[in-house]
Amino acid sequence: MDYLKNIKYSVLDLAVVRKGDSLTETFQNTVDNASFVEELGYTRYWLSEHHNMENVASSATSVLIGHVAGKTKKIRVGSGGVMLPNHTALNIAEQFGTLDALYPNRIDLGLGRAPGTDQLTASILRRGDNFANYNFQLDIKELQRYISVDNRENKVRAIPGEGAQIDIYILGSSIESAYLAAKMGLPYAFAGHFAPQQFYSAIEIYKENFIPSKYLEKPYTMACINVIASTTDDEAHYLSLSMYQSFLNIITDQRSPLVAPEETNLQVASDQQKMVLKNMTGLSFIGSKSTLCQTLSKFIDESGVNEIIVSSNIFDQKAKRKSYQIISELFK
To answer: Which domains does the chain have, with CATH numbers?
Structure first.
């Protein structure tokens, strides 16, 4: 239990669309959940950029971040993440500079280099450029320049953006991102909730190669993991069926809205699909408070991460908030 005491705990939300819900209802659930976890002491509430997905409504990420920040009081709100190749650095500097001006010292900017969508949609977002030679580091440096006060003498300036107090995080799911975050001296968030295979290697590489910067003196690691809590282990595993179905839908390229546990159909998965599903969900922690106390303590001890970001893909909103409450009790 001691391993959980000095760990920050946060939320990743994809604005997942439930079967039968409108987009208006989806966004209201997002706001309600953000307000709820704010009262529970969660550090930040992150939203992630995805496109062309019937089950995910966080495509206009900066707009949704602003909405959530406006409906909450103190919790940090940000991106987990913005897929930088889909935008220009100037666009993002202006958007997040605006957010910082509206909600000072509350905005996080997590950056990823994946498309957050299929290749066809990515080609449209990226204006036909396949980005085969895309330089993620160069784009991040350009973004840092735009939000720096040192940019005021340049011909192209980000206004809003210049001088904004925005914390930048590198997001990734591979050792490549770990090397980059270490080289740039930035905090590193690993997407273990869907790509856990290289998690331990990436965290070790990041720590071993970290170079202190003006942004960060020592390594700071964040693990995004699936966590579903309930009163009993059986109830938690029942609730998790919706999450597993959503991952199976990704594997089979059926991005349909989230369904209730009783509507899942996991038994139709082939042996190969089940293996892929098992690999995708390797960093999933499901159970009662006592079970999670043991499994999460072991995970934090082994990984040495500084912060946990929980993804809790639960259909029933009351059960989801109960899960958030149980999780918060573990860390207090």
So the answer is: 2-234+284-331 (3.20.20.30)
Confidence of residue 320 (pLDDT cuts 50, 70, 90): very high
The SS3 of residue 111 is strand
Nearest to 212 by CA among 241, 184, 178, 171: 184
Q: What is the C-alpha separation between 167 and 195, in angstroms, rounded?
A: 24
Give me the chain's average pLDDT, please: 95
CA 207 to chain centroid: 20
How far apart (Å, rounded) are the C-alpha atoms in residues 184 and 163?
19
Per-residue model confidence (pLDDT) at position 114: 84
Q: What is the pTM of this model?
A: 0.95
- What Å distances lie between residue 40 and 6, 10, 268, CA to CA? 16, 10, 39
Q: How many CB atoms lie within 10 A of CB 274?
A: 15
Measure the CA–CA gap between 125 and 224, rounded to whole angstroms. Answer: 26
